[in-house]
Amino acid sequence: MLSIKNTKNDDCKQLLRMSSFDSRESLSQSNSASVSLNNETPLNMPDKGQSLFNDVGIVLEDTINKLSTTKSSNTSTSTDPKQKKSFFLRYIHLPKFNSRVVSSHCLRIMFLLFISLIALLSFAIFLIVGYNAIQFKQQCLLYSTFDYEIIGDIKTNYTVRLNSAKTVFGSKSACEFCTYYCVAVFIYCIVTCFFFVLFNADNRIILTSDKTLLIPWLIISIILGILSLVNGCVLTNGFKMFCTSIINNLKYNQSQYCSQINLMYFEQYPTVKYVYTYMIIAIVFAWCQLLFFIGSIGILILRLSTSELDNDIDYVMDDEMKSKVFQKNIENLVSIEQQQSNDVNDIMLIEK
To answer: How far apart are CA 146 and CA 159, in angstroms?
Structure first.
């Protein structure tokens, strides 16, 4: 808003310089005429004063016409088709209390926080899914069906032997999707944080170039948010199917919970530990990642709805503010005209 006022004040100052120049020129002409005719027609001084008043009135009228033309041009510019074609989110008008409470600086900080959390969660999911695949000798645990028999029943441990003929591991594409998606999200978050720090180091860059990344960030965030939903569903449903196969092989006198996987010692895979705990953590992180994506998308929409993408700040000012500034400029011109008329009266009194 400060830049808007400065722009309008510069226009008014330029117009006032024009009016003052015209008035000074008319005053100099009147003074030269009064000096040349001082001894001949002293009774024509009221006519000269009247002409000066007329000149000042003409200058004031021309200036007001210029201001009205400027106002009408600003109004027509605000409804220019270029503004309509740039982006539809500029027509979202938020309540005034929201724009006052949440500043643009706070929105940028919140966006950076969400992006950082998304990066950490993506890295954690990548490690968990990859670690489980390594434990099962590069086999995907998601959507797998285990058929096994318990050969050693101890209160704190089950020794399990898998039936290789009936045990089916899940497709590797499911685990690869979760892994590569998290890697892509992590890279996106690192690049976003880099540009955020780069663009927020200077306020001049924030006012110009920072707005140009809002739309790409929004589009990429929406795409990655949809993929985050898919990622959460794949992890949840895939691990649920695996848990169902584990529970179906348990005896009736044993606990019918999927958490019993942590107590199992797989004879063919002796390095497997805490499968249930790790997968639950990965699933929770996946859904938290989706929530943070929704939050970042909401922040980008807020910033787009309260800012201009064409770097033309006149579009932001509404008609009410424009009319107030216009009326204030007219009042200033009227006061200047009165001061000029008083100066003319003083000159006339001195010459008399």
So the answer is: 14
Contacts of 51 (CB under 8 A, 6+ apart): 30
- Residues whose CB is less than 8 angstroms from the CB of residue 6 and which lie 6 or more positions away in sequence, other chains included: none
Edge to edge, the sheet with strand 157-162 lists 148-154, 157-162, 264-266
Residue 274's φ and ψ, nearest 5 degrees, are 50, 45
Region of 239 please: left (phi>0), alpha (psi -120 to 50) or beta.
alpha
78 secondary structure, DSSP code: H
Return the percentage of the chain with pLDDT > 70, whole number: 57
**Phi/psi at 317 (5° precision):** -70, 130
Instruction: Kindly report, residue by residue over 65-108, the tens digit of the pLDDT.
Output: 655 565 555 555 444 444 444 444 444 444 444 444 456 778 88
Per DSSP, 252 falls in state T
> Can you give the pTM of this predicted structure?
0.58
- How far is the C-alpha of 131 from the C-alpha of 43, rounded, in Å? 107
Cβ–Cβ under 8 Å, residues 86 and 304 = no
Contacts of 119 (CB under 8 A, 6+ apart): 185, 186, 189, 190, 193
Domain range annotation of the chain: 2-87+315-351, 103-308
* Best CA proximity match to 275, nearest among 246, 232, 252: 246
Q: Tell me the average pLDDT across 312-340.
A: 65
Tokens of 312: 């033309």
Nearest to 87 by CA among 220, 214, 275, 233: 214
Which two structure tokens, joined as six digits, stand for 41? 């027609």
For residues 86-125, one letter each, b for 16 or more C-beta atoms within 10 angstroms of the residue's C-beta and e for the rest, the string is bbebbeeeeeeeeeeebeeeebbebbbebbbbbbebbbbb
Distance CA 213, CA 215 (A): 6
Q: DSSP class of residue 150?
A: E
Q: Quote the tokens at residue 324.
A: 């107030």
DSSP string, 220-246: HHHHHHHHHHHHHHHHHHHHHHHHHHH
